[in-house]
Amino acid sequence: MLGAIAKGDTRIKNFLTGEDCVSTVNCLRAMGVSAELNGAEATVRGRGLRGLRAPSAPLDAGNSGTAMRLILGILAGQGFTSRVIGDESLSRRPMNRVITPLSQMGAQIEASRGRAPLTVTGGPLRGIDYDMPIASAQVKSAILLASLYAEGPTVVRESPESRNHTEIMLKLFGADVSSENGIITSRPVPELRAADITVPGDISSAAFFIVLGLCSENSEITIRNVGVNPTRAGLLDALRAMGADITLSNRRGEGEPTADITARSSRLRGAIIRGSLIPRMIDEIPVFAVCAALAEGRTVIRDAEELKVKESDRVRTTAEMLRAFGANAEETGDGLIIEGGEHLRGGRVDSKGDHRIAMSAAVAGVCARSGDTVIEGAECAGISFPGFFEYPVFN
Predict the structure, then answer these.
(1) Residues 97 and 191 in one domain
(2) What range defines the domain where residue 277 resides?
(3) CATH of the domain at 116
(4) Which residues in 200-238 are b (16+ Cβ under 10 Å) and which e?
(5) Using an 8 Å Cβ cutoff, are 258 and 251 in contact?
(6) From the candidates 283, 303, 313, 350, which is the catalytic residue?
(7) In the β-sheet with 272-273, what is the strand arrangement from edge to edge?
(8) Is 20 a catalytic residue?
(9) Which of 57, 124, 221, 234 is the most buried (most CB within 10 A)?
(10) Are residue 169 and residue 225 in the same domain, yes or no?
(11) Could you list the pLDDT tens digit for every one of the 395 residues in the chain?
């Protein structure tokens, strides 16, 4: 997205060709952006902050909440009207959390009961001072993207802090963005400049193999070049609280730090996971829950209401997945209570079209002591992890 509204060519290495990323690219192409995909590399020829064209058809974000919510921030500052749609799952997800601050900035966004499809009429925007009611990097990022088109500074206040990938990337592209103690300030600039990007390995994808390494007997696995941004790597802290043997080596990188992560077979114990740790591991909670089911004792996950408005209600679907393997999992108003120590047995899991549920179920199936595992709708893993089921461990 930033490459599309910058001046010059942005080259991206280690580009993920998952369905969410491709949906984003297709939305940009529909607005006149040239984006070439060549395996794991992409070249985006930017059109500048105000060079996008009005799309002739609705912009289809597919299953990607990130694409839909972030692109609203860009569309809010354009000189045309556009319509944004998504698949059935995305059309159930709440959008008022983005519509509210963008409307305060002057955007005109029409929605039915706060959900997609959305109609955005772009125009002049003004900076705002906004206290985030929830920890959401998607909402924060939409506001920061809109701030590029606003008159005057925009301030976003968040506690706890959410992942900061957008702030880091904006600075790289020449935006005037500063952050301190949960207060992010953005001031408009005349243009963004193109940049060359190497994307770190995704810790959300690495998480499945980290858990496999911890929960398999006589196992050791090293995953190289994984992004370990502290605002995103809460899973590692949660697993260590359970007694996980995890080490990081070969640390490198400015802005987005990376490292090689090694996970070894560990005797895990239950833990209480809550508070500011939750936004830092929100996408990894389903596979973390598998780890909790294999640990000794009780694990309690709190303050995770946000799980209920993901691709599925992940409080419910995670609990259902664990119970399908014979685990003891109870839903609460804001999370889960998991009684560990049971031997898992193969089960039948309906992924409900949620990629993280499908992949977490695959990990549980590998760790099961007996029985076969059947995952309905497993193809949804391609949303974020093409080729996941091609790894030998799942065959």
Answers:
(1) yes
(2) 203-394
(3) 3.65.10.10
(4) bbbbbbbbbbbbbbbbbeeeebebebbbbbebbbbbbeb
(5) yes
(6) 283
(7) 272-273, 298-301, 335-339, 328-332
(8) no
(9) 234
(10) no
(11) 999 999 999 999 999 999 999 999 999 999 999 999 999 999 999 999 999 999 999 999 999 999 999 999 999 999 999 999 999 999 999 999 999 999 999 999 999 999 999 999 999 999 999 999 999 999 999 999 999 999 999 999 999 999 999 999 999 999 999 999 999 999 999 999 999 999 999 999 999 999 999 999 999 999 999 999 999 999 999 999 999 999 999 999 878 999 999 999 999 999 999 999 999 999 999 999 999 999 999 999 999 999 999 999 999 999 999 999 999 999 999 999 999 998 999 999 999 999 999 999 999 999 999 999 999 999 999 999 999 999 999 98
Residue 277 lies in a domain: yes
Within a domain: 1: no
